[in-house]
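Hi P.,

Sorry for the delay on this. The queue was packed all week, but I finally got your sequence through. Input first:
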Amino acid sequence: MRSPAVSHHDGNHAVLHRVPRSKCSPQLSPKMRTGDGWRGWRGRHRRAAGAAWHMRHLIRIVSYGLTAASAVAVAVILLAAATARPADPALWPPRADAPQVEIVVVGHGYHVGLAIPTAMLAETARRNGDTALIRVAEQFGSYPYIEFGWGEADFYAAVPTVASLKLGLALRALFFPGNRSVLHVVGLPDHPHQAFASADTVRIGLSERGFARMLAALEATFFMSGEPPSPQPLGGGLYGASLFFRANGAFHIFKVCNHWVADLLSAAGLPVTPVLDTVAPGLMLDLTWRAGLERVPVAGSAAPKAP
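Then the structure:
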C-alpha cells in the first residue's frame, strides 16, 4: 500500500509530498503489536460489552417488574373500591346523647380478636334470646371481658402466633375446600388494653341496636347441637381461661378470620373494606381510615393468664 500524499502551495503551483506511513499510522505500543496485547485489549472490550448487555437486561427486568406491580396495585385498589361496604347511618356512629357499648378490636399479628364487656353481652343476649351467648356469658361470668376469634380448626389450634406459622397448614387452610371452623373464646381478667398490653387495640363505641345486631351475627356462628341445642366445646384454647367451640361456616381464602370480624363490625353498622380486611394490619387501617377511629398506643407486654 502506498503512503498517503498531502499538498501545499508554493507560489502558483501545488506541490505534492509523499508522507511516510509510519507518521500517519496509529502508534501502537510494543506490547499491543504482539498477540498477547491484542488479545488483552479484545478481552477487555468483550467484558465491557458484556457488562453493558447485562445492565440493559437488568433495566428491562426492573421495568417489567414495576409495570406488573403497578398493574397489581391498580387491580387491588379497584377491587377494594368495588367491594367496600358503606356504614349504616341508622346504626353507626351512635348519637352522642344515646347509650353506647364499647367493644375492642385486638390485633394478634396475623389475625384479630373482638373483646366484648361480659355484663353487656349477658344482658343483651338474654333480652334477644341468644342461647349460645347466654351459655358463654354464664361460663365466663367471672371475667369482665370476653374475647372472640374465629378461624380454621387445625390452623387456629396449631398456629397461635406468627412465629409458629407453618406454610403447609396455611396453604391447606386457605385453598382446601370445606375446611372446618372453630370459635376461640377467652375470659379476660382486665380491660383488653391491659390484658394485651403489647397488642394494637382499637376501641369502638356502638349503638345499642348496632351491638344487638352484632351479637345476633356472633350467635349465628356457634354450631348448636343436642336437646336443648347448646354450643359444642372442643377443649382448651390457646391462652388464659379459654375454650374452642365448634363453629358454622367454612374457612377459605375469601373468608378468613379477619373477614369474620369485619362482618360482625359491618352488622353493627361500621364501614368495612373486605379486600383490606384480609390481613390484620389492613383491618386496623380500615378502622382508622374509613371509620375514623384511633388505635390505642401500646403500653407494654403482657398476655392474659389463667387464674
